[in-house]
TrEMBL record:
Main localization category: membrane
Keyword Membrane: yes
Protein name (Swiss-Prot/TrEMBL): MFS transporter
UniProt membrane topology term: Multi-pass membrane protein
Family: Belongs to the major facilitator superfamily. Proton-dependent oligopeptide transporter (POT/PTR) (TC 2.A.17) family.
One annotated GO biological process: oligopeptide transport
Cellular component annotations (GO), alphabetically ordered: plasma membrane
Compartmental location: Cell membrane; Membrane
Matches recorded under Pfam families: PTR2 (PF00854)
Organism: Flavobacterium luteum
Amino acid sequence: MTQNSTDQFFKNPVLGHPAGLFVLFFTEMWERFSFYGMRSLLILFLTTSAVDGGWEWTRENASALFGSYVGLVYLSTMLGGYFADKVIGFRWAIVLGATLMTLGHASMALETHFSIYLGLVLLVFGNGFFKPNMTSIVSEMYKDRPEKKDGAYTLFYMGVNAGAFFGILLCGYLGEKVGWSYGFGLAGIFMFFGTLQFWLSQNIFGDIGLKPNADSKAKAEASDTDKRNPFTPIQLVVIAITCLLGLLWILNDPASKISGGKVNVFGFLGENGNSIAIVTALSLFIGLLMYRFTQYSQITKEKLIAVTFFAFLTIFFWAIFEQSPNSLTIFANDYTNRVLEGNWSVTFLIINSLITILPLAIITWVLYLLFKQTFKNYAIANIILSISFVIIWAIAIWMLAKDYYTAGYLSLSDDTLSLLKIDKVTMPLTEVPATWFSTLNSLFIITLAPLFSKWWESKYNPNANLKYGIGMGLLALGMACVAFGANGILPGAKTASVSMIWLILVYLFHTMAELCISPVGLSYVSKLVPARMIAFMFGVWYLAVAIGMKGAGMFGENIDTIANEHGLSYFFWMLTIISLVVAAFSIIMGPIIKKLMHGVR
């Protein structure tokens, strides 16, 4: 095989991939632990009664704030991608982002109105610097091994979901069962561990991600012969107007609703001021994008059009998929029978023990494989990583012990209860936390990701449009399950006792949909986009995700209105139909998009 600049990373592989991939795996794992751990609690915290420590907001207001928060998280990646590309490099961007997120979680743990809002702001900017640059490093490591990129991104995505699983499981449990501040605080602790581990292991990436200098810029320009297309002053003005309108809209939307109209930046435009602002911003952006496509070389232009097509489909995917921490969590909390008795109690406790211990054991085994390859050169980083795993094991075992004791299957003395900080109970009870169902998504990904990775690397690997079509079809199937389960809930009902099986099926089908779309989408960006534009275009990709996230919040805002008029089932059937339409559109457009991709699979 011809030697190339990335061969060094494949000399001592772990599970067939560079050891550096697994450094990123664990760094991203702790970041996702913190992000999803906090996110799983946010809607519940905002809507819980003041007596139970929440803010007692309406579902509409909570969804509006949640949608803007997660939208801004992904929107900020454009800023982080730009600074990484042009100023500070991938590595410093990741460290800066991780530090901001650590401070953000610590602020939220204080639970005052000011500290919660400050924490959300810090988390938005932290994610912006962190998220696009992790995937950019993966892309650079595999730039000479395109055939292994799909598998690498799927394994990387497995690390993402390992963190999400344990974050939701443990932060969600502590937040619901012990106290909100404990859930928010735990998220910050592991973000701090992830920061240290990455910083101490960064030399494993060679020259990738260093601060740009004159030599690196000259080398990048020499390797990229594509036609340049600098922004003109008029285009920069259009971008500034678009960004300003979009940012003001995403902030003003929840602010105007939460304040009852007292705060409304676009009030001077009338009753539909918010809609006028965002439509104007999107029109300007789409017009500029279409014009700039005409300025690139033909092949680059067509590849960018293909990326834009997939980004468009991604908007609909995330708008529906992200009902998980929103309407699906509300469904779990208010409309699902979560109290288990007798054999069902025992069954749940055993299953919960297995899905906690087995994934943790598997990830610990991956950690051991990484140790064997890297401990000699990165001892301190590995020790810090091992300490974090000791803490996770301790919290997981404590959680299981508390559940078995509360259910009446474990006897503990008063002294032991005091030592373990477990409240004494007199009546056995097994109640599944509402956040527990969200862990199923991550659990299924940990289980299924290797199978999908092998599928993408086999001769049966479907084309891009078919992957998206399959993914959206599975998304529709999941929503159809919960819609069917909610059929018996009358319009206007605030509570119900629907079987848990419908939520379990939703997360199974939605997980398979996510594996078809999310990591594969990231892989296509890295394959189709010129190297000099990679971090920024990942930012553009996350712009599409941001629109989808805000769309998820807007769907969630209307759940009460639709449920009161037509019934809760009607809401989920609407999402089912939208998913099927997008699936069909993706498959129909297959031949056209295949030509635009110029042989990229």
